[in-house]
Amino acid sequence: MDIEKVLERDGFYVGTPIGDSMWPLLRGRVDSVVLRKESEPRKYDVMLYRRANGQLVLHRYYGRDRKGRRLFAGDNQTRFERQTEDAEMLAVMIAYYKGEKKHYVDEPKNWLYNLFWAKLFIGRIPFVYVRKISKKIKKSRNRRKSAEKAD
Fold first, then answer.
1. Chain segment 94-135, per-residue pLDDT in tens
2. How many domains, in total, are found in the chain?
3. Are residues 13 and 69 in the same domain?
4. Whose CA, among 59, 77, 86, 105, lies 20 to 30 Å from 70?
5. Which CATH number is 13's domain given?
6. Does residue 49 share a domain with residue 18?
């Protein structure tokens, strides 16, 4: 299904993101997002955009740098991605589903999340690295257990 065609036809799109770049807000292949057609983001919006290479990405918008490039980053990332005007803004997330429960981005709970996770970008770096290291350790243990079972 072509997301852009659905956005053009209906003005919104509901789908499941892939990957863990927006963790802890969104779990890839588990949670769902509701996107509304949008061309210009507001600071801290979660945006669907197309990179210059054609790839679709769902990341948080942080404003512009001194050179006028848009700054994006996933909630599970520690570096900004700088995009020029070549990056096409397609949609903004207006809600998301965690299981059966729907959450709107303008709820007080999400305002607090933005305050502590999105606005304190540098402060979350230790949490992101600890999570990545623990995932590597877990993956290594699973490989070792699989190898032992094979023997």
1. 999 999 999 999 999 888 888 788 877 777 777 777 878 888
2. 2
3. yes
4. 105
5. 2.10.109.10
6. yes
Whole-model pTM? 0.83
User: Among the residues of the chain, which ranges form H helices?
Assistant: 3-10, 108-113, 125-150
Q: Residues 25-65: pLDDT tens digits? A: 999 999 999 999 987 789 999 999 998 888 999 999 999 99
Task: Give the range of the structural domain holding residue 110, as residue numbers without chain letter.
Answer: 3-120
Radius of gyration of the chain (CA): 17
- Residue in this structure with the two tokens 């997301």, named with its chain if needed: 3
- Assess whether 32 and 57 both reside in one domain: yes
123-148 in b/e form (b: 16+ CB < 10 A) is ebeeebeeeeeeeeeeeeeeeeeeee
CA 21 – CA 17 distance, rounded (Å): 10
Other C-beta atoms within 10 Å of 48: how many? Answer: 26
Tell how far CA 135 is from the center of its chain: 19
